[in-house]
Inverse folding.
């Protein structure tokens, strides 16, 4: 039986812009910057403001698509080693979220964990989240940070700081060619 949260029903959103934002955050992490460059943050804020409501929704969908794609890769990698992706990844990511109280207020952690579990079980994270209403302002930074943490988790597994970005870029390139 098909689920209403099946990824085939989900809008992909603006995956390219979402990837640009996530990759920028990863580079800051790897450059050991603890705070976002104020100029870069201003540029991102101006860009987000220029998107309008439809563009913001597309960006949110794009971030959820990234989470889905990364969890799909992680699920495949875990299955190749007889591991469960939820058991292997979600507790570590949630523990990291709990160590970041300025980014992840306690009340958003269950939602972010739910996105990971939804994606890890083959459901669309954005359609899963839509069941509970519109995104809240309090969920914006945690959503972005969840995608960054997930990408960084994959990069650590691959022992390559650019692996997750390349994974998505290659997937996007192959769909453009097909």
């Amino acid at each position: 039986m098909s689920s209403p949260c099946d990824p085939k029903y989900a809008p992909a959103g603006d995956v390219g812009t979402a990837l640009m934002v996530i990759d920028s955050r990863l580079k800051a992490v790897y450059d050991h910057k603890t705070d976002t460059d104020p100029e870069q943050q201003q540029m991102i804020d101006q860009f987000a403001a220029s998107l309008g409501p439809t563009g913001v929704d597309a960006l949110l969908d794009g971030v959820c698509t990234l989470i889905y794609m990364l969890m799909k890769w992680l699920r495949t990698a875990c299955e190749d080693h007889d591991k469960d992706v939820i058991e292997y990844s979600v507790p570590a990511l949630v523990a990291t979220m709990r160590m970041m109280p300025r980014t992840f207020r306690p009340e958003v952690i269950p939602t972010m964990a739910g996105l990971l579990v939804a994606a890890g079980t083959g459901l669309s994270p954005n359609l899963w989240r839509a069941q509970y209403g519109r995104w809240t302002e309090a969920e914006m930074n945690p959503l972005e940070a969840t995608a960054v943490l997930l990408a960084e988790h994959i990069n650590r597994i691959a022992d390559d700081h650019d692996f997750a970005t390349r994974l998505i870029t290659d997937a996007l390139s192959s769909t453009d060619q097909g």
